[in-house]
Amino acid sequence: MPKAAGETEEQSAEQAGSSRERASLWSLSWTFLKIGSTAFGGFMALISVVQNYVVERKKLMRHEDMLDGMSLATVLPGPVAVNVVAYVGYRIRGGLGALVCAVAVILPSFILLLGLSYAYFRFGNIPAVNKFFMGFIPAVSAIIVAAAWNMGKKTINGAPEALLAVAAAGLLIGVGGFPVTVSIIIGSGILGWLLFHRGSAKRDTGKEQEKDRKDREGKGPLLKDVASLPLAASFLSMNLAAAGKLFVTFAGMSVLLFGGGYVFIPLIQEIVVDGHGWVTQQEFIDAIALGQVTPGPILISATFIGYKVAGLIGATTATVGIFTPPALLMLLSTRFLDRIKQSDAIQASLRGIRSGVIGMIAAAAFVVGRTAEMNGISLLIFGVAVVALLRFKVEVVWIIPLAGITGLLLY
After folding, report:
1. What integer pLDDT is reported at residue 316 of this predicted model?
2. Residue 4 phi, psi dihedral angles, 5° rounding
């Protein structure tokens, strides 16, 4: 969080604590509903929008904590973006905050895909609205660039951090893949320990650490806070065996998801097409395509499959099943991270990891951007979006829809 001239670390910590106290569950739900309605472009785009709202605009979290959550989500199973959202909600308002934020960010995509699923099975295949979505891609790239720039200004404090970020970006762009992603996180942590451990001081002041400790204690035991997360799925599956089977199947698959939704597609296909025969091969392909039409993660395609099997209750239980277990694991791991991160060695490692994550974000902007149409319209949308975000601090909620309309009119 940026500090005004003369502002001390203690004043910065007090400001962050005051902001957290002002964040009601209602305001969090409304904020993440807006994010979930506009964050087209994949998990890094959604995370970038979350960072823009939570860190830059609302100042509900420090950027270091945001980077720690992104690092943790990268090496755990499940959809990275939803896990980060659950982490953010937990940091701000405990287990109930995690539940509210995760549900709110998924709900718009769930409702949209539910409507598309109904239309699909009633009227047949839906034509793609390519022009509208062509405008999204350069705008999404701009959002990620802005997030990398804002976070990098606060994280990159010298040549070692800059080199780590550049190396991470180069590896992801040049090689890519889940093994490389995990290697970047581990390697950055080791290099951070080697480069920054000697004589490094804890970044958090004693007062801020004590406040964070009290905040966590005030939230109560994690298991008590998040025990309500799977209750909705249990209730919904109570009266319908098919819905129960959907929940168990998707919940079991979710804890095997490492490397992102696209890596997970073959496993889902093997189970729901070849194993259970819930959808045909063509329907599965269409489910993935329709999932990408929504602003949510690609795994929202579980809604389509659940709807085919058991209607509304099937769509609900499949969606809850695919997202809940990884989110619970994320929150449990967050508690463990809180216990160990205060040591000098861990702080030094996290300093390196945060630099690596900045490079990963920058690489994501490049990967997204190169899928756009290479013409003047794309450059115009990208340039205007970057200026609007960095110079005029325009809310992301306006960027994506206007980019889509521009694409619809100009392409």
Report:
1. 93
2. -70, 165
To the nearest 10°, report the CA torsion of 396, 400, 403, 409: -140
d(CA 123, CA 19): 48
User: pLDDT by residue (tens digit) across 256-295?
Assistant: 766 555 556 666 877 888 788 998 877 887 777 677 667 7
Nearest to 359 by CA among 185, 169, 141: 169
Q: CA 254 to CA 102: how far, in whole Å?
A: 16
Cα 151-404-263 angle, rounded to 5 deg? 60
Q: Whole-angstrom Cα distance, residue 268 to residue 253?
A: 8
Q: What percent of the chain has pLDDT over 90?
A: 23
Tokens of 278: 């819930």
CA nearest to 89, candidates 1, 28, 21: 28
3-class SS of residue 199: coil
**The model's pTM:** 0.67
Segment 126-146 shows an average pLDDT of 73
- The pLDDT value given to residue 99: 95
C-alpha 187/C-alpha 181 separation (Å) is: 10
